[in-house]
Amino acid sequence: MDYVKPGEVLSSMIEAGRNKAELSIGQMLVRGALGGAILACATTLAYTAAAQTKLPIVGAILFPVGFVMIILLGLELVTGSFALVPLAVLEKKTTSGKMLRHFFWVIVGHLLGCAAYAALYGLTLTKMGTDMSNPLIQTLISNSEAKTTAYQALGGEGMLLAFIKAILCNWMVTLGAVLAMTSKSTLGKIVAMWLPILTFFAQGFEHTVVNFFVIPAGMMLGAQVSFADWWVWNGIPVLLGNLAGGLLFTGLLLYLSHKGALAGGLNGARATIAEDLPVSGRTPALEKSL
Question: Average of pLDDT values for 111-122?
Answer without folding.
Answer: 98
